[in-house]
Design brief:
The protein has 361 residues and is of the alpha/beta class. Helices cover 44% and strands 15% of the residues. The chain contains 13 helices and 12 strands. Helix 4 packs parallel to helix 5, helix 9 crosses helix 13 and helix 10 packs parallel to helix 13. The two termini are 31 Å apart. Bound molecules: fructose -6-phosphate. The site of fructose -6-phosphate has 15 residues, from helix 3 and helix 10. Fructose -6-phosphate (F6R) binds next to helix 3 and helix 10.
Length: 361
Amino acid sequence: TKGGYEHYMYKEINEQPGALRRTTQGRLNTHTGGVELDEFPPGTFSDVEQVHLIAMGTSHHAGMYAASLLNARGIPAYAFMSGEYSVVNPPVTENTLVVAVSQSGETADTLDAVRRARASGARTLAMTNVVGSSITRECDDEMLLRAGPEIGVAATKTFSSQVTALALLSERIAEDIEGTKSPDARNLMEALARLPGDVQEILDTSTAREIAIEYQDSDAYFFIGRGPAHPVALEGALKFKEISYEHAEGFAASELKHGPLALVTPITPVFAIFTGHEDEATLSNMKEVQARGAPVVAVTSERSTEVVEFADHVLTIPETHPEIAGILANVQLQLVAYHAAKLLERPIDKPRNLAKCVTVE
Ligand code: F6R
């Protein structure tokens, strides 16, 4: 049941602290800075040479996020939409680890991509939220999200759990390949352990509803970010468009000048996401859109005084490890999308033309 909430989506947004606690439960050790995955003991991934992350929609954004975490650790990693993966057929070897990210574990495009990867000799790992799903059955290994059932068509808590589980998995993979923990592992594990509390703080204090009211008559909504904040920008836009039916687009902040800037006007608010990845450059993108009259909502911890000073509005996130700040920024954007759709009286849990689980290609 909706347990007193008007929509499953809002209930599931609010369930994130508990979901994240379960996702990390028994899987990290803040004293040693170690990842402890029962399913993947140390050494499991020693032979891996490259990682392919295959997924669709929100799960693809989590895959892109994980590719950036792995790349930051020096591991070759690439994220693909599974529907494209099957067509492009990037070469794999037996030392390629293909991670299929799927909340439902039933998405047809992802299932098809897994089958092809397996047939080419890759090692396959399913990351899903559903025990015994089709994708799980086709893969060599599995890692469960434990986010609890998600009923709203728009994926919310499962994205947060996916990125968190992928951060743990990435640490295991990197440690195995490099034969040593990253010097930063303990900080990352501590930040992951604090994540449920940080998300709760956002849920308790967010001003997303005021932002949604302020900009409800806009022409379009744009989202920009760099590094791991790029998939968060794409996810912010996806959530916004699917439940509000308004035009929303996400871009890499670096992409702006190469075309999208032509769309920017005083009635296209821009959400700029700051996670500590070349924030200076994103700050100058923010000033560029403001020079075209667009209002900017910065999603940032208040560490960067210049961002806070120049932004028209700020959605604050608690200060944390830069590699997981995007999870927090995304929670603010989930809330903006929810409140915007609610003001427009959209059927939030069942947007038109969409299904929770896409079992045809
Ligand atoms: C967006 C959304 C979809 C799914 C996509 C993949 O809110 O829910 O984009 O993320 O259809 O679904 P799964 O993760 O079940 O493979």
